[in-house]
Design brief:
This protein is α+β, with helices and mostly antiparallel strands. It folds into 2 domains: 2-123, Aminopeptidase (3-Layer(aba) Sandwich); 127-273, Gcn5-related N-acetyltransferase (GNAT) (Aminopeptidase, 3-Layer(aba) Sandwich), CATH 3.40.630. Helix content is 30%, strand content 32%. It has 9 helices and 11 strands. The protein has helices spanning 2-7, 15-24, 76-90, 105-113, 131-134, 152-163, 182-187, 230-244, 259-267; strands at residues 36-41, 44-52, 61-67, 96-101, 117-127, 143-146, 190-197, 200-210, 213-221, 249-255, 270-281. Helix 3 links the parallel strand 3 (61-67) and strand 4 (96-101). The longest helix has 15 residues, at 76-90. The chain is globular, with a radius of gyration of 19 Å. Mean pLDDT is 85; it is low at 167-172.
């Protein structure tokens, strides 16, 4: 709270997700992996860096952290950063992304100093009004079907199309090896739905509910189904599903360069609240 209040920034720590992962893990993740690094001054926690592992072993690891404003410029973050990078190396990470709010002056300067290369930016957007209630709800006959582990490679294939993720060649003994498993994700609070029309998959979306906050992620439409209003239909159906689950707030994240998605989300009542920059370590 002190860090976010001091600089008026957002920290994407994903603590609820990681806690759920620890509680509900099926054993596919490494039991010896270290994801949290903390620095104490006496009994007071003054520094933290965390590693997030999304998308199985095929996705890059994401790291983000903070230092108490009164304890900065003492090398605390540099030490935590060094430990986190060593851990990522031990795990043979496919890549490392470091997250930093665009408004964080200290964070941006640190990443420039360590030579991290800017990769992309992501808007965090919240549904601030009920504009979507006024929109004609043309759901286009769309239905949601919950994805199962048997659908894991299809989820990975679509992520490649939408976001550039690159699934590895299938293992003949285990075609889902290293790929995000939908049933595991659901145990952590993230449910993956395929959007179907006439029993054919046209896209997907990931929905999360944590402490009354509903999140919409990974929304995409297969190329052959674009330009038909399906994106709006899936978004509105996702909002309805989260409201039915009694979400008190609804948010989503979208790449800053995705102007088409930005226009869609704004037209449905979402407003930008922060911008998160992603930096890549070569």
């Amino acid at each position: 709270m002190q860090c976010t209040h001091e600089e008026q920034i957002t920290l994407k720590l994903e603590l609820d997700y990681k806690l759920s992962d620890a509680v509900n893990s099926t054993g596919r993740t490494g039991i010896h992996d270290i994801n949290e690094f903390m620095y104490y001054a006496g009994e007071q926690l003054v520094g933290y860096i965390g590693i997030c592992d999304f998308g199985g072993t095929l996705a890059p690891l994401e790291i983000t952290g903070m230092v108490h404003p009164k304890y900065r410029r003492q090398g605390i973050f540099s030490k935590l950063y060094e430990l986190a990078i060593e851990e990522c190396g031990r795990r043979n990470a496919r890549g490392i992304l470091v997250l930093c709010d665009k408004k964080s002056v200290s964070g941006q300067k640190f990443l420039e100093r360590v030579g991290a290369g800017y990769k992309f930016s992501e808007f965090e957007m919240y549904l601030h009004d009920d504009s979507f209630e006024k929109i004609e709800k043309r759901l286009c006959g769309i239905n949601f079907r919950k994805a199962a582990n048997a659908d894991a490679f299809e989820v990975a294939r679509q992520n490649t199309i939408y976001f550039g993720d690159c699934p590895e060649k299938e293992n003949e003994n285990d075609p889902n090896e290293g790929i995000l498993l939908p049933e595991d994700e659901e145990r952590k609070g993230m449910t993956i739905y395929f959007a179907e029309k006439d029993n054919q998959i046209i896209g997907k979306v990931h929905l999360q509910m944590i402490n009354g906050l509903g999140g919409i992620y990974g929304l995409g439409i297969l190329p052959e189904n674009r330009g038909k209003g399906f994106g709006r239909a899936i978004l509105l159906k996702a909002i309805e599903k989260l409201k039915d689950a009694e979400a008190t707030e609804i948010m989503l994240q979208v790449a800053a360069e995705n102007e088409t998605a930005l226009r869609l989300y704004k037209s449905c009542g979402f407003q930008e609240t922060s911008v998160m920059d992603y930096f890549e370590l070569k």
